[in-house]
Backbone:
């Protein structure tokens, strides 16, 4: 059992990295199913996570396998947020694969279950992933978000990300159209 999660009831999320997560057999065994549940609930609620329909269990297992393999190769970071041993959020970044882009990574996903919104989970996950990027020598961390995801865009700006591009009405969800917004955090300019 992970010692960080044994202190009893807490109101602060505990943020684990991939190594801590996989060193706890109980957490590791439940992780994929918990991620599937969170992503499915969020997508059903209209969250802008890249799916129109909730991902299948196989889709989630494949995604997590790819991310964990990249973490083991030093090409990614994965973080999971727990409240009382219950997964409430996750996030990860992946290093760009082209040789000329290796010092850069894309913050692919931050997902926090609806019941944990407003508790600082997304901020703590993102801050931990930024710290991981610095530690891995990432120079520029990028992300894209749907333009109507105002809470996420505000969070990213508050952590130092700046907008570097926008594709108007690029994302189509049924009859609705949303901007695709590109953000970057230049870690070379921060100490």
Residues:
């Amino acid at each position: 059992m992970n010692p960080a999660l044994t202190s009893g009831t807490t109101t602060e999320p505990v943020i684990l990295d991939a190594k801590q997560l996989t060193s706890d057999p109980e957490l590791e065994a439940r992780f994929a199913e918990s991620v599937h549940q969170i992503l499915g609930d969020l997508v059903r609620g209209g969250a802008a996570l890249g799916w129109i329909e909730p991902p299948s269990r196989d889709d989630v297992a494949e995604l997590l396998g790819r991310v964990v393999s990249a973490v083991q190769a030093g090409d990614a970071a994965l973080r999971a947020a727990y409240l009382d041993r219950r997964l409430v959020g996750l996030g990860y970044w992946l290093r760009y694969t082209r040789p000329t882009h290796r010092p850069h990574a894309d913050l692919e996903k931050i997902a926090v279950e609806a019941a944990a919104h407003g508790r600082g989970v997304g901020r703590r996950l993102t801050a931990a992933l930024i710290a991981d990027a610095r530690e891995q020598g990432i120079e520029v961390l990028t992300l894209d978000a749907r333009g109507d995801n105002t809470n996420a865009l505000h969070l990213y700006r508050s952590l130092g990300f700046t907008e570097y591009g926008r594709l108007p009405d690029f994302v189509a969800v049924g009859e609705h159209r949303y901007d695709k917004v590109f953000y970057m955090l230049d870690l070379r300019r921060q100490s």
Q: What stands out?
A: Strands lie at 14-17, 76-83, 86-95, 104-112, 140-146, 162-173, 176-186. The first helix runs from residue 18 to 22. The domain at 3-189 is CATH 3.40.630.30 (Aminopeptidase). The helical segments are 18-22, 25-44, 57-72, 121-135, 150-158.
